[in-house]
Amino acid sequence: MTPRPYRQGRRQLAAQKTRAKVLRAARSLLTGRGTQRFSLDAVAERAGVARMTVYYQFRSRRGLIEALFDSFAEGGELPEQVGLAFQQSDPDQVLAGVVSAFAHFWQAGRTWGRRVRALGVLDAELGAAIEARNARRRQVMRTVMERMIQRRGRPSATERAEVPQLVERAADAISALINEGLERAQSQYND
Predict the structure, then answer these.
(1) How many CB atoms lie within 10 A of CB 143?
(2) Which of 84, 112, 157, 177 has the fewest Cβ atoms within 10 angstroms?
(3) Residue 79 CA: distances (Å) to CA of 13, 18, 101, 135
(4) Percent of the chain at pLDDT above 70?
């Protein structure tokens, strides 16, 4: 008697479908209007899977949050658009592409963005995950500014010392502009 053939592809496809189902449930729970707490148990119940399935897929609540944020970014085409922006040779075009990518991302996520940020104030772990994403955004801006510095020549020691603060201010200003635009779009959408 020969052993039954093992098909890795089928199992992997089933795991991907389960992961997608859990992410949909997490998105629904996190962005919905209800007051149900965002926990692995609540996500598992909403997805119709065992709690251990969620742990197996994401390892922790923070892992689930990170995967959810990745799915938000992919839905807003952020990785693709930022990648295209960095293919430009002119740093000014890179900056324009990055700003455009984030504006597109926030516009695509206007239905969930405000709620997730608000919940981040109330939920320390979610807030930490949001801040980690903000740090990544600031790193993108540092990289853009470094390209601009390289193009324009070596700055003086005083100018180099000011770069971190300028990057933080630029990243915060871009974020504020995007958020202001989102708030205007949201109020027009609600009217």
Answers:
(1) 15
(2) 157
(3) 23, 23, 9, 16
(4) 85
State the SS3 of the chain: CCCCCCCHHHHHHHHHHHHHHHHHHHHHHHHCCCCCCCCHHHHHHHHCCCHHHHHHHHCCHHHHHHHHHHHHHHHCCHHHHHHHHHCCCCHHHHHHHHHHHHHHHHHHCHHHHHHHHHHHHHCHHHHHHHHHHHHHHHHHHHHHHHHHHHHHCCCCHHHHHHHHHHHHHHHHHHHHHHHHHHHHHHHHHHC
Can you tell me the distance from the alpha carbon of 182 to that of 105, in angstroms, rounded to the nearest whole number? 11
177/76: higher pLDDT? 76
Q: What would the pLDDT profile of 96-115 be if each residue is shown by its tens digit?
A: 899 889 888 888 887 788 88
- Tell me the per-residue pLDDT of 147-183, one tens digit each, with 9 for 90 and over: 887 887 777 788 778 877 877 777 777 666 666 655 6
Which architecture, in CATH terms, is 7-68? Orthogonal Bundle (1.10)
What whole-number distance in Å separates Cα of residue 27 and Cα of residue 47?
11
Are the beta carbons of 41 and 51 closer than 8 angstroms? yes
